[in-house]
Amino acid sequence: MLPSRIGSAAALLLAALAALAAPASSLSTVRLSHRTTAVHRPTASRIGVSSRPFATTSASARSISKPPPTTLSAVEGDFDPDAIKNSVAAIESGSVKARLRALYRFTRPHTIRGTVLASVAGTIRALVDTPGAIATADWGAMLPRAVVGMVALLLGNAFIVGINQIFDRDIDVLNKPFLPVASGEMSKRVAWLAVGASGIIGPAIVYNFFPTILFKLYMLGWILGAVYSVPPLRTKRNPLAAGLTIATVRGFLLNFGVYYAVKDAIGAPFAWSPKVSFIARFMTAFATVIAVTKDLPDVEGDKAYNISTFATRVGVSKIAKGATLCLFLNYVHAILTGALSKAGTFRLLPMIGGHAALATILLARFRELEPEKLASIKKYYKHIWDLFYLEYVLYTLI
User: Fold this and answer.
1) Mean pLDDT calculated for residue range 362-375
2) What is the sign, positive or negative, of the torsion defined by CA atoms of 269, 119, 388, 315?
3) In a 10 Å sphere around its CB, with 0-12 CB exposed, 13-18 middle and 19+ buried, how is residue 97 labelled?
């Protein structure tokens, strides 16, 4: 049985390696076509923040910072300068809907999806791993607690990404002009109010409704997320520290914390199962890759503000190759874990076949990358997040 499982896994890996060996699309020096050659540091007038809570003061301020129109298939959707201009105008006119839309985008929806999927998958995994838990659970008590826990996680997520936008405003005017603070749809005052509320209410929820160990882990993530962006530490300036921060918070703390919380809620003792150990390892490695590849579209702005990243040091082409290789090896690790584990530990079809399929998709997406084109870079990064989401689907099946 074991030799056949290893043989099947080896065949899948050889096919994927053949795809990796094929030449990718022209890997060359990055030239971001929609940016100007000379990068100027943004001034207050370029950023366009006014005394009005959500909007900029004048059309001239917006027109200075407005880049040429471009259509990008990206993690956070296509960048549409006209849509942003219309949103600013709607906010200035007092539109509540436009303000709520800006607040939603302030929370970085693609990170929210990751948090929600991790929570749902971790909950399902903990219930499935506990015999009789689904049949005997007190759902009337558990469901409200689950909702409260999800709210706390989303507030923690909003705190971390929000404080980053406040301190990265000038850089984001160059790198991410679609973000609400950078675009002028949200003032720093409103951003601080949102961050402050998230940073206080989230910890208060965890402190009052969950075990002490989860509160400590939550606060560890809270602190790591803050010092990532806030001077004087501002760990994002060091690529190694930045990678470790994101990997710890999104890889280990989130997955372990959710599983532990569900076990505590159903009154079952926590124990490291092979599946929990696997997802903690796998997602920590995956989050490390995300921490590196997130900087690929931001090379110009990071260089302008002396933010050292692996992308600015090594270049987009080499980082994309290295990231793809690391993720591919992570999938190899998943396949071998399934093939070499004791019979019955994992379901082989999702564990081996599912990860082989995702590895193949990864290589296919890499071959589509044109690193001299910003649109292609953003599309490549979006595909990495898509694979991140799909892993949580597999986690409920393995």
Assistant:
1) 94
2) negative
3) exposed
Look at residue 263 in the predicted model and tell me its pLDDT: 93
Distance CA(356)–CA(349), nearest Å, equals 10
Q: Per the structure block, which two tokens stand in for 138? A: 């007190």
Q: Among 204, 118, 206, 202, which residue's Cα sits nearest to residue 158?
A: 202
CA distance 72 to 348: 38
This prediction's pTM: 0.77
Instruction: Return the number of other C-beta atoms located less than 10 Å from residue 93's C-beta.
Output: 9
pLDDT-wise least confident of 22-36, 99-113, 127-141, 375-389: 22-36
Q: Give me the DSSP letters along 29-72.
A: ----TTS-SS-----HHHHT--SSSSS-S-HHHHHHHPPPP---
Tokens 């994992």 map to which residue? 346
Which CB contacts under 8 angstroms, 24+ apart, belong to 30-34? 30/299, 30/315, 30/316, 30/317, 30/371, 30/372, 30/377, 31/372, 32/297, 32/299, 32/300, 32/374, 33/373, 33/374, 34/67, 34/68, 34/70, 34/374
Q: Which two tokens stand for residue 23?
A: 């030449």
Q: Confidence class of residue 162 from pLDDT cuts 50, 70 and 90?
A: very high
Tokens 């607690």 map to which residue? 145
User: For 383, phi and psi rounded to 5 degrees?
Assistant: -65, -35
> Long-range contacts: 104-109, Cβ < 8 Å, 24+?
105/76, 105/178, 105/179, 105/180, 105/185, 106/158, 106/161, 106/162, 106/165, 106/179, 106/180, 106/181, 106/186, 106/191, 106/194, 107/154, 107/157, 107/158, 107/161, 107/162, 108/76, 108/157, 108/161, 109/76
Compute how many other C-beta atoms are within 10 angstroms of the C-beta atom of residue 218: 21
Report the 10 Å Cβ neighbour count for 153.
Answer: 24
From 125, 106, 71, select the one nearest 266 (Cα to Cα). Answer: 125
What confidence tens digit (pLDDT) does each residue in 275-307 have? Answer: 999 999 999 999 999 999 999 988 877 888 877
Residue 142 CA to residue 290 CA, distance in Å, equals: 33
Question: Does residue 221 or residue 237 have the better pLDDT?
Answer: 221
Query: Average pLDDT for residues 190-202, to the nearest whole number?
Result: 98
